Amino acid sequence: MHVLVVEDEAGLAAELVHFLKQEHYKCDWACNGEDASERIAVNRYDFILLDLGLPDYDGLDLLQEARETDYEPAVIILTARGELEDRVKGLGLGADDYLPKPFSLLELKARMQAVSRRKFNVKSSVHEFHGFELDSTARTVSYNGQNISLTKKEFDLLHYMLLHKNRILTRLQLTEHIWGNILEDDYDSNYIDVHIKNLRKKLSAHAPTDWIETVRGVGYRLTL
Amino acid sequence: MRLQSKLTLFSAISKIVVVLLLIAILPPLIHRVAILNTDKRLNEKKDNVLEIISEQGIENFIAEGDEGAYGSYNLLKEEFISMEQIAEPVAIDTVENSLRKVDEEIVEYRVLSLTFEVDGKYYLLEIGRSIDTILESIDTMQKYALYFLAAVILLTVFIDLAFSKILLQPLLVIVKRLKRIGHPSTFTPKTINTTTSDFLYLNNAINDMMGQIQDAFLKEKEFIGNVSHELLTPISILQTRTENLLTDPEVPEHLLVKLVDNQKTLHRLKSIIQALLLISRIENEQYLKNEEVSLTILANEVAEEIADRAEVKDIKLNVKLEDDWTLPQANYSLLFTMLFNVVSNAIKYNKPNGSITISGAPKGKGYELCVTDTGVGIAEEHIPNIFNRFKRLHGPDNESHGLGLPIVQTVARFHNIKLTVNSTVDVGTTFCFKFSKS
Description:
The structure holds 2 protein chains of 2 kinds.
Chain A: E1 2-6, H1 10-22, E2 26-30, H2 33-42, E3 47-51, H3 59-68, E4 74-79, H4 84-92, E5 97-100, H5 105-119, E6 126-129, E7 132-135, E8 140-143, E9 146-148, H6 152-163, E10 169-170, H7 171-179, H8 190-204, E11 212-215, E12 219-222
Parallel strand pairs in A: 1-2, 1-3, 3-4, 4-5
Antiparallel strand pairs in A: 6-7, 7-8, 8-9, 10-12, 11-12
Helix pairs in contact in A: 2-3, 6-8
Chain B: H1 3-56, E1 69-73, E2 79-86, E3 93-102, E4 105-118, E5 121-130, H2 131-180, H3 197-246, H4 253-283, E6 291-294, H5 295-312, E7 316-321, E8 326-330, H6 332-348, E9 355-363, E10 366-373, H7 404-414, E11 418-424, E12 428-435
Parallel strand pairs in B: 7-9
Antiparallel strand pairs in B: 1-2, 2-5, 3-4, 4-5, 6-8, 9-10, 10-12, 11-12
């Protein structure tokens, strides 16, 4: 997948590009609107990660330009200006998703995958691991055809860990993913531990779950 | 009551008072006028009689050798004239009421009495007019005076009503425009068609004030936008950098733990900024209230979302809502955050094996939704400060940024929900949201 990162903050862009490259995306960076406009006109991008607050350009104009190309790149708006009108306008102009800053890179990857499935019509939504099967469309988990009943949060947790397999996920990242944008006073990492404990219990009834690793003091890792 | 109604009412009442006063004063006044008129007429008649006597002599009235008396009543005994000779030269010139017996009937007359001398003889002249006749004319006069007054009052009240309506029309236009303002940003300054300088002044003052409010809102919105951008961008950089470092295989394990600590601090900073921005945005009216929200659905969805947390702490979560209550114009996600924060606090500050009840029931003309816990409670002296975003109270965990309840209060205010808290230390806390019929 070819991704264009439109971001004027060099520090953030560098982290984004680094992450995406690690995730095997082919990645370009445009640091201003003019540069981005040229790149959109010349290249075929699958994804455009668009920062709305550009110094020389209105991000929404770039969105319009992207929409007018004959290939239709998926656009995810990244902005620190979380105003309602911007969001409504962005989605109204055809953006595929909207991620307010500051966002987690893992959340961005999850959203990109969801958009890909929807937009590029990815048929296969079934992940296989250690004899288990997770169908992200039907939201089911099974072992040898036998259905395993998981709660919504347990499913989300397993799916997220599967999406970021072999990577250490901190309790905070997991918390942010399963409780989304609910703005709370604080977060309690114990809840994640309890969910992981329940998940292990339910899965280990079918097969060993030593592939769910606990990284002491940090979080969890799903090794495949 | 509307100004126009008040003015009309005042004018009608003042006129009625004037009429009542007139009704009270009118009878004695008219009576006095009638008596004065009668006296004047009697005096004119007296002058006529005296003139006739001086021209034609008294013989026309009293023949020589007569008994010395003359009397004449008109047919209906309304008036009489009498003249008689008197022995003593007594000087009388009076007009007064007196009773006379005529044909076996006592009639009260207004009588002019005068003594005069003709050819060395003294005479007493009396001219009378029946009081009944006078009273009759008084009644007629009063009746017509009252009709006239009533007509005048009705006419003037209608004229007042019409005039005040025309006069106050610009004020009604101003009031209508003010009523239509849902938010200062929707206000458009308009001129008003009137020659009344007070209304022109009022309209201009409102236009100017709304302009200033709009500017202030706009500046605040711009400020919030800038703060968002300026603060959240560096946090974004730090967050993404930390995440990338966490996956770097070259980072030793003991540093990973420090990175996680950094991530937690960053998360706290992010939450504080986001909470403050949320409060500012709500206060700056940047959220829409365009959804119908059922409180039953809301309470159940909050309970469902948070159920596992309650379960982890062995806390029983009950939802008991009597009747459904729907808010016609609300913002679901803000209300969700509001209720979620209260229930989340109820879990956080509960006791092991405690319980939380989300109950709802119609109360008065509205509906009351309460969250009751069996928790540690809040000391009475702390209750006034729990919604204060600048006064941080440390919870048992010392981790919270203390903005959860200010958010609750801001969302409640935004939706005109009355929020009350009752708490007893070591017994529990109840947060109640009172929804009134809009």
